[in-house]
Amino acid sequence: MNPDASTIAAGAPIEVDLSPVAEGQDIKVFWRGKPIYISHRTKKQIEEARAVNVASLPDPQTDEARVKSGHDQWLVVIGICTHLGCIPIAHEGSYDGFFCPCHGSVYDTSGRIRQGPAPSNLPVPPYQFVSDTKIQIG
Asked: What one-character DSSP code corresponds to residue 18?
């Protein structure tokens, strides 16, 4: 008994199976009508995100604060540019994160704004791990 589409659109939590997502791959799902990017980050991507001087960021936030402890390889963000609400493209831009081609905002592999007019990082939606391979968003 799954909720109908209107209930899901209104904000019912959704579960996402992460087991088919390969390392280095991103998937996009929808929750509350918003695109949610789920990135299975590589060790290199995590190391690069953590090597950044947080004080140099326009919206300072550590990588550790943007992921769930023990699940550092998974980044879950709302895929809406914080500048004017465009949809950024995954694995694009100078930092292999997200790039918004509309006005040039560039985000890193932690979804943090690095260049361009966007004022803040891509938001992290409320989510939790219900198992090692499944998350619940909402």
From this structure: -
Give start and end residues of each alpha helix (H) in 10-114: 43-50
Structural domain including 107 reads 5-137
Strand bridging mode 74-78 / 113-115: unpaired
| 40 is known as an active-site residue | no
Instruction: Read off the CATH number of the domain in which 102 is found.
Output: 2.102.10.10
- Biggest CA pair distance of the chain: 48
Nearest to 37 by CA among 96, 129, 133, 123: 123
8 Å CB contact between 115 and 54: no
Mean pLDDT by 10 residues, the chain (138 residues): 62 93 97 97 97 96 97 98 94 92 95 97 98 96
Residue whose entry in the numeric block shows the structure tokens 């609400």: 85
Q: Please tell me the pTM assigned to this model.
A: 0.91
- For the chain, how many structural domains are there in total? 1
Q: What is the dihedral of CA 14, 85, 96, 106, to 10 degrees?
A: -150
